[in-house]
Every structure is written in structure tokens, then in C-alpha cells.
Backbone:
């Protein structure tokens, strides 16, 4: 599926759809309307290479002071979205960017995207080099480029690309284009905040008689339009700061903070409501009949669930079939960015994208009497805003209706909508156990696509006990500092994903590299032997890795002292910095880690010191460790629990405190003294 | 090397248009064996995602067609990705092109069930511009599962007036059980169109890099058709290890040519002479360069003084390899056309790295010295292969100037490279140089380890709680200095400050607060580059009564260089160098030094050396560490000893200094 985008749109356009792109649309523009439009908006071309006055005016502005790491500033961004009487839209864009640093040179590469349902009606590019020379590019200077090469997606997205002259610090890049939008859309999103600060920007809506519109705003207070008369409205959003999280640890998705406005439009009374219900009604025809269970597909569903009577068992059998046996391979053309292929086609080829896999899951479940709906989400938490209904999202999963009264301890990823319970399942996430939800989606919003009953729902944050690391090890320390012993590491949930991937599908070298690179964090010299992995493919069981290890010079002999680090393996401290925090803290995932190590001490040594116990509970997370000596054995035990996926910025001091405590504990030493 | 590259572009001499019949019979599939259907792994590559059971490439010049065929056994989930296929084709108008056709494919399940590919490939645009269109045919084979055998074949059809000899890349990312390559070259007389006009080809040549026991032998069929054929078995995947030599150009392969020369010596001699002549034509020197040099140097200057002034002058030019190449439109707007000589480079005060190297040689000549350019294969990516008769393997130009009767090597195209030195990627590298009246294959000198030095000094004052405040000063010369200055060139000082901050943060114990201070000699490339940082934070591991601090704070986060006990390929470091550290902790009366690491020295066969030398006073401890890497290449069988050497000193590096809490009021941080 081609739902939405992960990064902020550089030019303020949101063109991604379910599975990689986003939105706008319209219908075929009539010839007369097109001529009028071009006449009304055509730029004031000067002769030769001189740039238009609006570019000169934008370039002449005095700039505010920006942080030194600001690559460029958008001096002007004007968007005019004109809908004709047939509902077909044309977008006209003017944009002027000033490059401030060498790192901003990329702003001189202009991409205007389109697909088979869109058409670039005109495109002009100008620039003013730092030496003041003005340039105008010609059509022959532009290239067309495809979606990309070497990925798993076939999409008909294309880009008209221009490399503007003068793209150096101090240079000004300007372009203007008109594009006929997709005919099937009735919403447009204006991303007025992005990676660059915006000095002046506006969005103008022009509607034909009989049309109405509605707006919703995400991550920003609603702005009132200026009525320009003649069914024209303009929103202005000037001096908008950038969302720059490049050097912010534990940062949320930039798109979850960036302000955007979505406009819904249409003939009075039709399709203008900015509600989830209207989104669902727009989407319903696209999925109608796509989830039908054809006979061969139904037969397979029956075969998979033969002998099973329990709801969960049946749903799990089908879910895992789609999860494991349907390859991710996306083919998206035109509306195929939103519309899934039929379940029958997906079943026949055994490949598809996220919406194809979710659709097949629903179809197969229906064949065994289980109802399911599609659910739109975004793979970056916080992008889907329940208060801003739109098609902004980049992923599709399945919501499986749980029979009334059914209870099971295996139901974890559950939401309740209008009294019905749904088990949320992502068949594209191949390593997430059925019944759970990958951590990227937890705590975000999903949109249950159910026609007029469509609605947003907060996805659950799962119990930390479902995402665990449990390391245990028994070691023996020799008087020359050599540590030897056996280690067992059990992982369950998302924290097991990478290891499952490597041990289920990676080759011997990758497996060796994984172990060696993990151990080199804790040992300067080591030798791992007898490595065994179990349950790499069994997602509902602990992935278990066990091995023997010998580490020379683990304990450091300093005169009569022998220094031993009781925390032998594993690093858990979150990454923090010393700067003031202004954005929410994304802790990634709820999880629980426990380590238990015992070290038999060498004869002739007595324990002189052990680290003090640590106990720190900051609410959203808790850390506890103890080091004891029993007989001639040193016992180290710790646990770390993360209970929330996001916390507000004002809790950053607690995160720093947590990081500091864990780091100190991980480096603490026990001191042995020769007797 | 952007100019003076001879293109091996072949055109039908007779202008005969050959047309494919288009009636070729559909090729037969290979029936799978029972063993192939049942296999679950290839013992030589445990855990491999997939293996080539068979691959074949047949090139038929008469038909202007390459036919490619692959049989792949899918062994893991990841191996399913090999069922997704993207085949590129392009059309460059009169400059040729090729198209993909005759795509066939099928999937065979482990039980022998055959699922043919019946779909139509999708065609997507990769790039389209005036006179050029690149597209790709994309398809995926149906119903692929772990254990499946996937098969596909297709043809690449070239324009009728082109003959392109094949390159057989025998080694790939997958293990290959068997592969077959066949080329049926044309017997027509061809001409090669290069920068020096058209030349008749005199035969076929090839550069093989093959496992022992394999050779390519030409054969002749009864009808006179010449054939080149190679069948190989059990080819290991391309190696992939850390600290590996630049193997990119040394994987198993056979590169063919319609040659205009009978031997590689003849090729390099003759083509090299043309290249050298072309280079001289660009270099000159001509009037403007001569004028500039006359204004720049004094008649009384020694040759070295002259050359230093010239070097400093070209170093000030805008090196567009580190900024941005100007478009033709920009050049025109500034009153410039295409650069035809070094006069043009000097006039516009701008050029790419090669043009600036050529300008330097021109100016040296104008000052009365002998100067040459040398085209080298950059050591960071490839190895020069003399048997491969292609200028495409040569990357950058460096300069050779005779100063005081002795040839010296210079790297003026590498902005900020000091006078008389080479960037490491250009040192100890092979290539082709100009000589008096011609050219010769040559090797550049290496840069001794004493030329590249990193000095790291920490002066830290510790409080009663074990927290330190102080300064860290980093100083770089040679290769590391050039690396930082290049980062600065590609960005700006703000970006460099960020990068330096991050690099120091990675070196020091976690959680320290670091502020980047003054950066010295950033533009003065003849001087060491240095940067100062203010640091603050906890450095040690507390035990209650003691505080363990890293004796050398710069190796606190050091990871083992060679964690793996096995090695398949030789070991290769970028450059020889010295790293010198000094860490001084001054501690309060509440802390006393209980112990510190013993002095230590390690030597690896005269190729590398390590020394740790702590010294203490009642209120301080200073640890000096020196590491010297004198040799950059080590054979595979040297790995165990080299690894032991690294293990020894990296273990020593982790020995802490132990401070004892002397008073009750003192509490180490973290408690």
C-alpha cells in the first residue's frame, strides 16, 4: 500500500500515498478553464535570463537570524489550488529558496512529482547566483526520473528534475509549476512546516460555484482564511520555524510535529466534511469487492483452519499464512497507491504490498466466518492525528473483529470501537508475533476503514512483558583475569526481531558477525564457542541464543587488587545529551530486560568492595540492580522496564538521570583483594 | 580522471545492418534434479540465502544479442528476494542502446510443481532526458517459497551498428555451482571510435582474473566461427570483510576487447603516448599561465621556492571537486566556454581536481621545471590491473615535477594536501605517467608513517566526586588532517565543529559534556590542524572506596579491532600513521592514587609498535600512549599474529588507574 510519507516534504507538497506516497487530486481540467487559469497565473517573464519580479522581491527580503546549522530558508512558498466545475484541480506553486550553507546545495535540485493521473502543465526554474547573475532554465534542461531502482516497489511515480545554476551559499533558487492533479481526489494537504524555516507562505483555494470546503489542522492551531472574494480563500503562515531533529536524541518523527492543513472540498453536501466518516466513504468504493473470498482462497482458508474451533487459533493460522507466505512486492499505478489488488489476485500470485496483504487477510478470515476491516496507520508514531481527518498515512494493516464474549490471554493488541473489540494485526510485519503489534505503531492512531462508520482509534501500548530480553550466565573467574562460562539470552517480541532475522535468514558469516559485534562492546578479547540458536522462526516462543565464552584479561589486576565488572554483558542506557529539551521524548518501545550473572571468584581472593545497589523508578521507566557475594560467588542481577513509548519534554531530566544511573551501574566494578 | 579517456566504442566498419530474425526458438528449461529439489543448504556457504545452480551468458555478435539465463535455489526467506527482477535498458539515440526482450521465467517448488511466469513485465522510467532514455522491465516470479528453484532468461539486444564485447563477472554475491559463458564474436572488420579518431581493430584480447585451473581458450568451429567459452564450477561468493584490500576490481572475471593492439605493453605504450600528448595539449603552458608564473615567482627564487609559490597559488583556486561543478550555462554566463587549456583554468580561477593538477604542472613548466601528470587508480577503491586495457580504471591525476634534479610527487588536485605529499588514496598507487616524449606505467611513492600523526592531549582536573573538567586538544597532520579539512571543504566550519564534537564524544566515556572550541590552521594546510574542546563529566567507574578511571581517556570506548578469529582475505589499512595520547588527571587531596597500569611496550615484527607509559605525582597521573602503524598490508596468514598483537595492546589500553577515596567527604560520582 502506498499510504503516506515518513519524511517531511521538502517543497511543502504532500504527494505520498498508502505505501510511500501521499495525496492531492481533482478531475480533468476543461480546455477553457485551463486557458483561463494559465492566463491568470502565468508568470511575468522578463527577457533573457532575468528572473521574475516576484523572485526578485522574495530575494530582497531581510532575513531573520537563523541557527548556524540552517541549510537554507524558504523565502516564498505560494500554492494556489484551483478546482473547476467538474471537480478537477490544478495546483500552481511558486517557491523561492535561499541557500545559506554548502550543505543546502541540494535545494538547487528541484523535483516535481507526477504519475499517470497527473500532468505537469508548465514548469519554470530560475536562479540568482551568489554573484548576482540571473538564470532561467529551459525545458530541455529538465529530466524525468522514475521512482527509483532496486527496491521492491513498482510505482508509476515520476519526477521532473531540474538542477538549477548558482546553487551555492548565497544563491537563490526559484521555481513555478502548474500541475493537473489526480481526478479522484477531494482533499489536499498543505505541509506548511518542514526541514527548512519558511519566511512567507500561503495557500490559496479557488472553488467553483456550488462547492464548499472544510479544513482540519494537525500539530498547529487552526488558522483563519482571508476571503479574497469570488470563491477564493487564502491562508498565510509566515515566519514558520523549521522542524530540525537531526541531532536530537530520542526524537519523535519530524512529521509528528510539523504543522499541516488538510482541505476537503466538493459540491455542497457531498464530500466536504472533514471527518473520518467522509474519509471512509471516499475509500469504501475502492475496497468494495476487493476482499471477497473466491473459492480457491476460501478453500485455502478452510484448509489452514481445519480442526480448529477457537477464534484465535483460526485467525492466527490465517494471519501467519499471509505474514509468512505472501511476499512483499508492491505494484502501484495511479489509484493503485490507495486501492488494493483483489484478494484473489494476491492469493494467486502470493505477493503484494501492505494493503494487498491486509486485504487478503480479511478475505481469508471472512471465509471462515471472521470479520475484519482495513486499518490505515502511519509507520511513524504521531503522524496520524485523530483531530485532523485525512488520507495522511503510509501503511495499511488489518483489524480483526473479536467475537462478542470471547476471552483469551493471548489477545494483546486489542482496541474497542463502538462496543466491538478488534485484534490489530500487521501481516506485513513478518517478525511480529500474531496477537501483538510492532512498537512503531503502538501509541499512535489507526483509522478503522469502515465506510460511514470509519473512525480513529488509539492503538494500544503493549505490556513491557511482551517485549523482553532475559540474559543469564554462569562464569568462572581465574586469578589471571580470564573469565569463562556459558551465556543464555532469550528474547521475545520486537527486541528479538533482528536476531530472528539473522538466525532464520542470514548466513553463517552474518551470524558470527552479530555475536562478535555484540560481544566486542563488553570484552576486549573473547572467544565465543558452541553457538546455538533456537526458535528463530517461532515468533510465539522465546528466541534463544546460547554460547560458551572465554574472555582473557576480563578482570584487571592492579597490584594486589583484581577489578571485576559484575555487569558482564549488555548495554541498556538510553542515548541522551546535555541540551535543553523542547520536543517530546520517544523511548521507542515498551520493554523489559533482566540480566542475572554469577561469577565464581578465584581462590586466594576476597571481596573488598562491591557496587552499591541501584534503584530508580521514574514512572515511565524503572531500573534496579544489585550485586551480592555468596560464598565465593559474585551475583549480579538487574532489571530495566520501559513502560511508555513517549513522554513529554519536561521529563527529560528524568531520562538523563536514568541514563546516568544505568551507565554508572554498567561500568561499576567489584574489587577483589589477594589474601 | 575526467578527460583523455579513450573510449572502447565499436562500430561496424562495413556499416552493414544486421537484423535479428526474431524467430529464434524458445529455449528449453533445465529439468531439476532430485538433489536440487531437495537441497536445503550449500555446505560451502552455511546459511546462504540462495545459490546459483547455474548461470549462463551467451553473446552472439551476429545477432547483436546477449542471452542471459539463471537458475537460483532459494534457501532462506531472504533468498525469495532473488525472485524480484529489474532489467535495465536504454536508448541514447545515435550513441546506441540496448533493449530487453524474450523474458521467460518459472518457479519450481521442492515437490517438482512448476509455476510458469505468465505475466507481463512492468516498464518503469529510470531517467529520461534529451537524447537519452533509461527504463527498466520489472517483474517478480510467482509463488516463490523457501526451497523453490527460480529460473529466468532474457535477451539484451544491441543496436545493429554496434558490437560490444562481453564482460563475464564470474564471481557474485551468491555461491555459483556452475556457470557457462560463451561469446561468438563477429568476424567482420571493425573500427574502434575513440578520442583519437577511428582505428581498425586487429583482434580480440581479454583480461582474465580466474580461479586456478581455469583459462579462456579461443576455438574455431568448422564454419570458421571463432568461439570463446568458459565453464566454471563452485565459485565462492565475493568476500566481504573489514579491513579488506580494494577487491572491487579483483573479483573473478573476464573482460574482452576488440583490440587494436597485440599486447598490453603495446596498448599502454601507444595509447599512453596519445594520452600524454592530449594531456600536454591541455597543459601547455600557454600565454596566460606563463604570465601568471612570471608575476608569481622571482627570477632569483630557487626551484623549490618557485614551486612552493605555484603550489600555494593553485591551492587557492576553487576546486570544484569539493564545491560544485558549474554548468555550461553558468560558464557561458560568466563569459567562459569549455576549458581547452590550463590558461582557461587559471583565467576562471576554478577547475576540478584533475584540471588543477594539470594547471600546477603547466605552471611548473612555465617556471622552467620539468613537469608531468600521472593518472592513478585510487587505492581507496581499486587496484590497477595492467592486463585490463582500459583507461577507465584510472581515476585521478597527480603531478610529478623535477625539483633540484629530483622528481617529486604532488597532489595539487587534492585541496589542502601539503606541498610534496600525496593523499593516501594516491600514494603507493599504480597508474600511467607522462615521460619525456611518451608515457610509462608507474607507481607513486608511499607516505611514511611519520607523515600522518594524531596527537590527543587531555588535561583534566578532578573534583572530590570524581567528575573532571578540563580541555582536550587534538592535533592532526598528514592523512587525518586532510580528512578533516576535506570534510570542512564539503560543508562548512559549523558542520566541521559538529563532526569534531561527535568524534570526540565517541572517544570519551559516555555522558560527558563536550564543547568545541577554537579550530586552528584550518586553511593553513602546511601546518598541523588542531582543535580544542572543553569537557566536563564523570569519567570513572566507582566502587565505593575507589574510583577506576581510564588511564588513557581516548581509548575508553575502544572496541577490539579484530574480533573475529578467522580471516579469508589479507588485511589492509588505509595509511600508516602514529597516534600519540597524553592524559593527565589532577586530583584533589581527598583522592589518592592506589595503582596505575604498568609501563608496557609491544612490537609486531617491526611493522607496528605500541607503548604505554604512565607517570604519577602525589596529586596527578599522566599516561602517555604511542601507537605506530608502519605497514599497511598484511597477508592472510599473518592474521593470527597481527590479531594477537592488537589483542595485547587493546587489553592493556583498558587497564584503569585506581584512585582511592582518602576522606569520608569524598564520594565518587554515580553513587
Residues:
Amino acid at each position: 500500500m502506498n499510504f503516506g510519507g515518513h519524511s517531511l516534504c521538502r517543497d511543502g507538497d504532500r504527494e505520498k500515498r498508502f505505501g510511500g506516497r501521499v495525496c492531492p487530486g481533482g478531475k480533468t481540467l476543461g480546455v477553457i478553464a485551463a486557458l483561463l487559469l494559465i492566463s491568470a497565473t502565468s508568470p511575468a517573464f522578463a527577457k533573457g535570463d532575468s528572473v521574475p519580479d516576484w523572485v526578485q522581491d522574495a530575494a530582497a527580503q531581510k532575513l531573520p537570524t537563523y541557527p548556524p546549522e540552517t541549510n537554507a530558508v524558504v523565502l516564498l512558498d505560494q500554492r494556489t489550488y484551483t478546482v473547476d466545475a467538474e471537480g478537477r484541480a490544478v495546483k500552481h506553486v511558486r517557491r523561492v529558496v535561499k541557500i545559506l550553507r554548502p550543505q543546502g546545495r541540494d535545494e538547487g535540485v528541484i523535483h516535481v512529482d507526477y504519475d499517470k493521473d497527473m500532468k505537469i502543465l508548465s514548469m519554470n526554474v530560475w536562479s540568482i547566483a551568489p554573484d548576482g547573475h540571473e538564470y532561467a532554465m529551459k525545458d530541455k534542461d529538465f529530466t524525468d526520473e522514475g521512482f527509483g531502482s532496486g527496491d521492491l516497489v513498482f510505482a508509476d511515480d515520476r519526477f521532473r528534475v531540474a538542477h538549477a545554476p548558482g546553487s551555492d551559499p548565497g544563491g537563490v533558487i526559484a521555481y513555478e509549476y502548474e500541475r493537473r492533479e489526480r481526478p479522484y481526489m477531494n482533499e489536499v494537504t498543505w505541509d506548511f512546516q518542514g526541514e527548512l524555516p519558511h519566511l512567507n507562505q500561503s495557500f490559496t483555494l479557488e472553488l467553483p460555484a456550488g462547492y464548499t470546503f472544510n479544513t482540519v489542522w494537525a500539530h498547529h492551531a487552526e488558522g483563519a482564511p482571508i476571503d479574497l472574494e469570488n470563491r477564493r480563500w487564502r491562508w498565510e503562515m509566515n515566519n514558520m520555524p523549521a522542524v530540525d531533529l537531526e541531532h536530537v536524541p530520542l526524537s519523535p518523527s519530524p512529521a509528528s510535529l510539523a504543522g499541516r492543513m488538510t482541505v476537503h472540498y466538493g459540491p455542497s453536501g457531498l464530500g466536504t466534511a472533514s471527518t473520518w466518516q467522509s474519509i471512509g466513504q471516499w475509500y469504501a468504493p475502492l475496497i468494495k469487492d476487493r476482499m471477497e473470498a473466491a473459492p480457491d482462497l476460501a478453500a485455502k482458508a478452510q484448509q489452514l483452519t481445519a480442526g480448529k474451533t477457537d477464534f484465535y487459533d483460526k485467525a492466527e493460522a490465517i494471519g501467519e499464512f499471509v505474514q509468512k507466505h505472501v511476499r512483499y512486492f508492491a505494484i502501484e499505478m495511479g489509484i493503485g497507491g490507495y486501492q488494493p489488488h483483489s484478494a484473489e489476485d494476491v492469493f494467486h500470485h502470493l505477493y503484494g504490498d501492505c494493503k494487498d496483504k491486509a486485504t487478503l487477510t480479511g478475505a481469508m478470515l471472512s471465509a471462515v466466518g471472521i470479520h475484519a476491516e482495513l486499518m490505515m496507520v502511519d509507520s511513524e508514531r504521531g503522524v496520524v492525528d485523530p483531530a485532523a481527518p485525512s488520507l495522511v498515512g503510509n501503511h495499511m494493516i488489518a483489524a480483526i473483529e473479536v467475537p462478542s464474549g470471547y476471552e483469551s490471554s493471548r489477545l494483546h493488541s486489542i482496541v474497542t470501537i463502538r462496543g466491538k473489540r478488534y485484534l490489530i494485526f500487521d501481516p506485513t510485519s513478518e517478525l511480529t508475533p500474531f496477537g501483538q503489534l510492532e512498537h512503531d505503531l503502538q501509541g499512535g492512531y489507526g483509522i478503522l476503514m469502515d465506510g460511514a462508520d470509519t473512525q480513529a482509534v488509539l492503538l494500544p501500548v503493549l505490556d513491557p512483558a511482551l517485549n523482553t530480553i532475559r540474559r543469564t550466565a554462569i562464569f568462572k573467574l581465574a586469578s589471571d583475569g580470564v573469565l569463562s562460562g556459558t551465556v543464555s539470552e532469550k528474547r521475545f517480541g520486537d527486541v528479538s526481531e533482528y536476531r530472528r532475522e539473522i538466525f532464520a535468514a542470514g548466513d553463517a558469516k552474518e551470524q558470527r558477525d552479530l555475536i562478535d559485534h555484540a560481544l566486542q562492546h563488553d570484552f576486549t578479547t573473547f572467544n565465543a564457542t558452541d553457538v546455538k540458536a533456537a526458535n528463530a522462526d517461532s515468533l510465539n516462543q522465546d528466541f534463544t541464543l546460547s554460547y560458551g565464552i572465554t574472555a582473557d584479561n576480563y578482570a584487571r589486576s592492579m597490584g594486589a587488587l583484581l577489578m571485576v565488572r559484575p555487569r558482564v554483558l549488555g548495554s541498556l542506557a538510553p542515548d541522551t545529551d546535555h541540551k535543553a529539551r523542547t520536543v517530546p521524548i520517544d523511548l521507542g518501545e515498551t520493554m523489559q530486560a533482566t540480566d542475572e550473572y554469577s561469577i565464581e571468584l578465584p581462590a586466594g581472593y576476597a571481596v573488598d568492595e562491591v557496587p552499591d545497589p541501584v534503584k530508580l523508578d521514574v514512572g515511565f521507566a524503572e531500573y534496579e540492580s544489585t550485586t551480592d557475594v555468596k560464598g565465593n560467588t559474585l551475583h549480579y542481577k538487574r532489571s530495566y522496564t520501559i513502560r511508555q513509548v513517549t513522554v513529554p519534554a519536561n521529563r527529560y531530566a528524568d531520562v538523563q538521570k536514568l541514563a546516568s544511573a544505568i551507565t554508572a551501574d554498567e561500568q561499576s566494578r567489584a574489587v577483589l583483594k589477594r589474601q | 580522471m575526467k578527460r583523455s579517456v579513450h573510449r572502447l566504442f565499436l562500430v561496424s566498419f562495413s556499416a552493414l545492418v544486421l537484423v535479428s530474425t526474431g524467430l529464434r526458438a524458445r529455449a528449453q528449461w533445465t529439468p531439476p534434479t532430485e538433489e536440487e529439489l531437495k537441497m536445503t543448504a550449500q555446505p560451502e556457504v552455511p546459511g546462504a540465502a540462495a545459490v546459483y545452480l547455474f548461470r549462463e551468458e551467451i553473446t552472439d555478435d551476429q545477432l547483436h544479442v546477449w542471452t542471459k539465463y539463471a537458475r537460483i535455489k532459494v534457501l532462506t526467506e531472504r533468498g525469495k528476494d532473488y525472485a524480484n527482477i529489474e532489467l535495465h535498458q536504454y536508448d541514447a539515440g545515435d550513441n546506441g542502446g540496448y533493449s530487453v526482450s524474450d523474458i521467460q521465467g518459472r518457479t519450481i517448488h521442492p515437490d517438482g510443481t512448476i509455476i510458469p511466469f505468465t505475466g507481463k513485465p512492468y516498464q518503469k522510467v529510470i531517467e529520461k532526458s534529451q537524447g537519452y532514455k533509461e527504463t527498466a522491465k520489472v517483474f517478480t516470479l510467482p509463488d516463490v517459497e523457501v526451497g523453490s528453484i527460480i529460473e529466468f532468461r532474457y535477451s539484451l539486444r544491441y543496436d545493429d551498428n554496434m558490437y560490444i564485447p562481453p564482460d563475464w563477472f564470474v564471481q557474485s554475491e551468491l555461491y555459483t555451482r556452475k556457470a557457462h559463458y560463451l561469446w561468438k564474436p563477429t568476424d567482420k572488420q571493425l573500427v574502434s571510435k575513440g578520442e583519437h579518431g577511428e582505428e581498425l581493430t586487429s583482434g580480440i584480447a581479454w583480461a582474465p582474473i580466474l580461479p586456478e585451473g581455469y583459462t579462456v581458450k579461443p576455438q574455431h568451429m568448422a564454419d570458421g566461427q571463432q568461439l570463446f567459452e568458459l565453464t566454471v564450477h563452485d565459485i565462492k561468493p565475493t568476500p566481504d570483510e573489514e579491513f579488506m584490500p580494494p577487491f572491487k576490481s579483483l573479483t573473478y572475471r573476464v573482460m574482452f576487447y576488440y583490440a587494436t593492439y597485440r599486447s598490453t605493453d603495446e596498448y599502454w605504450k601507444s595509447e599512453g603516448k596519445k594520452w600524454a600528448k592530449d594531456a600536454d595539449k591541455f597543459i601547455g603552458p600557454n600565454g596566460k599561465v606563463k604570465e601568471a608564473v612570471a608575476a608569481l615567482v622571482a627570477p632569483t627564487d630557487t626551484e623549490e621556492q618557485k614551486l612552493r609559490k605555484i603550489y600555494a597559488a593553485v591551492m587557492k583556486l576553487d576546486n570544484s571537486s569539493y564545491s560544485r561543478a558549474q554548468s555550461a550555462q553558468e560558464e557561458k554566463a560568466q563569459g567562459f566556454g569549455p576549458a581547452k587549456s590550463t590558461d582557461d583554468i587559471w583565467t576562471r580561477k576554478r577547475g576540478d581536481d584533475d584540471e588543477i593538477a594539470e594547471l600546477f604542472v603547466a605552471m611548473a613548466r612555465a617556471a622552467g621545471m620539468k613537469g608531468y601528470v600521472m593518472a592513478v587508480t585510487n587505492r581507496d577503491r581499486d587496484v590497477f590491473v595492467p592486463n585490463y586495457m582500459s583507461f577507465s580504471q584510472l581515476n585521478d591525476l597527480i603531478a610529478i615535477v623535477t625539483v633540484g634534479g629530483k622528481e617529486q610527487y604532488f597532489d595539487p588536485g587534492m585541496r589542502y594536501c601539503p606541498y610534496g605529499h600525496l593523499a593516501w588514496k594516491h600514494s603507493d598507487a599504480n597508474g600511467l605517467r607522462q615521460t619525456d616524449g611518451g608515457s610509462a606505467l608507474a607507481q607513486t611513492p608511499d607516505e611514511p608513517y611519520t607523515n600522518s600523526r594524531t596527537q590527543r592531549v587531555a588535561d583534566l582536573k578532578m573534583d572530590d566526586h570524581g567528575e573532571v573538567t578540563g580541555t582536550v586538544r587534538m592535533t592532526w597532520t598528514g592523512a587525518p588532517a586532510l580528512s578533516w579539512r576535506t570534510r570542512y571543504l564539503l560543508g562548512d566550519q559549523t558542520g566541521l565543529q559538529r563532526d569534531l564534537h561527535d568524534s570526540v564524544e565517541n572517544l570519551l566515556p559516555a555522558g560527558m559534556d563536550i564543547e568545541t572550541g577554537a579550530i586552528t590552521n584550518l586553511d593553513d594546510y602546511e601546518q598541523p590542524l588542531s582543535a580544542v574542546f572543553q569537557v566536563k563529566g564523570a569519567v570513572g567507574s566507582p566502587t565505593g572506596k575507589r574510583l577506576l578511571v581510564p588511564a588513557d581517556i581516548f581509548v575508553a570506548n575502544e572496541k577490539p579491532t579484530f574480533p573475529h578469529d578467522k580471516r579469508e582475505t589479507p588485511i589492509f589499512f588505509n595509511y600508516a600513521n602514529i597516534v600519540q595520547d597524553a592524559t593527565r588527571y589532577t586530583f584533589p587531596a581527598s583522592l589518592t592514587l592506589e595503582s596505575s597500569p604498568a609501563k608496557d611496550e609491544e612490537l609486531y615484527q617491526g611493522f607496528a609498535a605500541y607503548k604505554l607509559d604512565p607517570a604519577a605525582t602525589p596529586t596527578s597521573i599522566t599516561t602517555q600512549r604511542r601507537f605506530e602503524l608502519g605497514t599497511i598490508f598484511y597477508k592472510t596468514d599473518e592474521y593470527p599474529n597481527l590479531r594477537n598483537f592488537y589483542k595485547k595492546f587493546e587489553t592493556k589500553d583498558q587497564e584503569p588507574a585506581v584512585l582511592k577515596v582518602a576522606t569520608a567527604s569524598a564520594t565518587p560520582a554515580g553513587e
Remarks:
- Chain A has a mean pLDDT of 90.
- The first strand of chain A starts at residue 72 and ends at 83.
- Chain A has three domains: 40-274, 284-461, 465-674.
